[in-house]
Amino acid sequence: MTHATTHEERAGREGALKFYDLSHPWGHNAPLWPYFPDVKIERFHYMAKSGVLSQQITTFMHCTTHTDAPAHVVEGTRFMDEVPLSSYFGTGVVVSIPKEKWEVITPEDLERATPSIEAGDIVIVNTGWHRHYGDNRRYFVESPGTYKEAGEWLRDRGVKGFGIDCQALDHPLATAIGPQPNGPLIPGVLEEYKAHTGREAADDFPEWEPCHRALLGNGIVGFENVGGQIDEVTGRRVTFAAFPWRWTKGDGCIVRLVAIVDPTGEYRLETGEAAAS
Q1: Which of 53, 131, 214, 251 could serve as a FRET partner for 124 with CA atoms 20 to 30 Å apart?
Q2: Residues 122-138: pLDDT tens digits?
């Protein structure tokens, strides 16, 4: 067999794969969590000046589609560079769990989800909220989300990773947006929640980021602000890849979350064996 034939066959197998980008764009005017400073991008060299383009960026890593390091919320746990690369690659499911303003994803929702959530899965939940993604109160303040019970269900099921198309792994009122440390960030949000639900936010969400803690504190990676082509793979079992930077002592990282499917079933990973001489 010639090298040309080998390359052609490899290209054919790779060409049959389908890639779905589950990430929101990053750049100027990226939608931001309520107390983050703006993304800053400066051109230090550009074509008319230097014949090359070189840019410098200033950004929070918890911006657009990203992953959290365990050390982001749990003292004494792993930073970004200490999380195994294998945590960001694997098979799993994208499940539809539609929710409205301030609703909570429950263990029952996860139990009924299809395809079924299995041990070792990377799980992405499509609530439909990614359609509201933008610089607006609806997306960041009024979103649905997970809370303690869902986080503990995912932990006990033994999943490998979890992501959601909302502002954070936890319900917004279980973050600093609500009655938590440094909150409430948004004037009137607690009164609005009571008017909307008839309940006190502090009663419904007494703990700070318990889903983050249940997941990240137990070696389960998390993805926030999932979006992009999520609707195209919802209800399907896929392979995921989303590798963060090798950032020493990093608390999180913007990622390109990708879902991959192989319609032919013919693609395989290389064995690592040396080529024959």
Answers
A1: 251
A2: 999 999 999 999 999 99
